[in-house]
Specification:
A two-stranded antiparallel sheet has the order 1-2. The mean pLDDT is 88. With 72 residues, the chain is an alpha+beta fold. The chain is built from 2 helices and 2 strands.
Amino acid sequence: MPSTVSAHQGDTIDLICWRELGATSGGIVEATLTLNPGIADAGPIIAEGTKVILPDPPATAAPSRETVNLWD
């Protein structure tokens, strides 16, 4: 379920996504822009106090470890 946050002074959409969702890749920023029509028209810095609707947090993938086989 999407959540709503308020922008802090000097925030950008990328910074808000990183702070609140822990990610900016995988379409998160694009989904945020889609949920907030017209927000990009004001420029890259979001006005302090602007309500921003965020998409659902990305599903976390199972951590993987790179391994080395000594006998290959």
